[in-house]
Automatic annotation (TrEMBL):
PANTHER family: BROAD-RANGE ACID PHOSPHATASE DET1
SUPFAM superfamilies referenced in this protein's UniProt entry, alphabetically: Phosphoglycerate mutase-like (SSF53254)
Name the UniProt record assigns to this protein: Uncharacterized protein
Gene Ontology MF term list: catalytic activity
Superkingdom of the organism of origin: Eukaryota
InterPro entries in UniProt: His_Pase_superF_clade-1, His_PPase_superfam, PG/BPGM_mutase_AS, PGM-Related
Active site per the UniProt annotation: H52 (tele-phosphohistidine intermediate), E136 (proton donor/acceptor)
Binding annotation for substrate: R51, H52, G53, E54, S55, Q56, G57, N58, R108
Length: 296
């Protein structure tokens, strides 16, 4: 009995000592820090944003007045572009790493994703998930050819981010969808710790630029400097194992008349941006400087 009381007394004194000297807080801080570092280093190896291949709408924009946007498919050239893109990504990713694919529900994006995935062994593809949040900007059902020039002129004056199509969306609306999708992406990576996994997001040009804007917390002005990606153009964000941040590996192209004169490239500017800054942001980046190269 005396031994039990003595042991209990020692435990109480020990806990009291820890409490008074903040040693418990130190231990908890170390545990949380190591846990956070463990998760960050086991997130996806790469996040790859991919625009769909050439569509029937890219070939002849009049089709938007008769065919629903979501039903527009790829052209023969678009299918070739998707197959070629798959071959390039296979060389980049290799045959041992896995893939998780998120794809827009639009026909052209689904066809692109399917053709890209043909370049990889089926066992390497963990899953393909269709997500409506990464769809194209809503242009208001069918386009009116008679008012198209007026619409284009108004959009240029107001800007891609703020202009709202009649019965459709603004770029700001798509930005909100990006935010919701990004929350799901965080949970996906934190719940499925696969350090050799790659996340492919097959979507649309505007979504890709808004994703980068949201991810790196760029301003609206910086967003407006970015040119669209080519059909089957892609953008790579690669994990840095030292801190779990994601480095922008792809050089972005900007409109010549809006280029800025700073000296740091996008890749260097955001090299130290932590993925966790998205949750508790403390960095606002002002410098976006192109280096004259288009995405592959």
């Amino acid at each position: 009995m005396m031994i039990f009381i003595a042991t209990l007394l020692v435990i109480v004194i020990f806990v009291w000592f820890l409490y008074k000297n903040d040693v418990a807080d130190l231990f908890c801080s170390i545990i949380v820090s190591r846990s956070k570092r463990f998760r960050c280093r086991r997130r996806a190896k790469r996040i790859i944003l991919i625009r769909h291949g050439e569509s029937q709408g890219n070939q002849d924009s009049r089709i938007y007045s008769t065919v629903p946007d979501h039903a527009i498919g790829l052209t023969d050239q678009g299918r070739e572009q998707a197959l070629h893109c798959g071959e390039i990504l296979r060389k980049l990713i290799g045959m041992t790493e896995t893939l998780v694919c998120f794809v827009s529900p639009f026909r052209r994006s689904k066809e692109t994703c399917e053709l890209i995935c043909q370049a990889f062994p089926k066992e390497n593809i963990v899953k393909i998930r269709e997500d409506p949040r990464i769809r194209e900007q809503e242009w208001g059902n069918f386009q009116d050819l008679a008012t198209r020039e007026t619409t284009v002129s108004e959009r240029k004056k107001i800007g891609r981010f703020f202009y709202r199509f009649k019965n459709g969306e603004s770029g700001a609306d798509v930005y909100d969808r990006v935010s919701s999708f990004m929350d799901s992406l965080y949970r996906e990576m934190d719940n499925c710790l696969m350090p050799e996994n790659n996340i492919l997001i097959v979507s649309h040009g505007l979504f890709m630029r808004l994703f980068l804007m949201r991810f790196y917390r760029w301003s609206v002005e910086k967003f407006h400097t970015l040119e669209n990606f080519d059909n089957c153009g892609y953008c790579i964000l690669e994990r840095d194992d030292t801190d779990g941040s994601f480095t922008l590996k792809t050089d972005l192209y900007t409109y010549p008349e809006e280029k800025l004169s700073h000296s740091n490239s996008l890749s260097k500017t955001f090299n130290q941006q932590s993925f966790d800054e998205e949750v508790n942001p403390s960095i606002h980046v002002d410098d976006i400087v192109p280096n004259g190269k288009k995405c592959a």
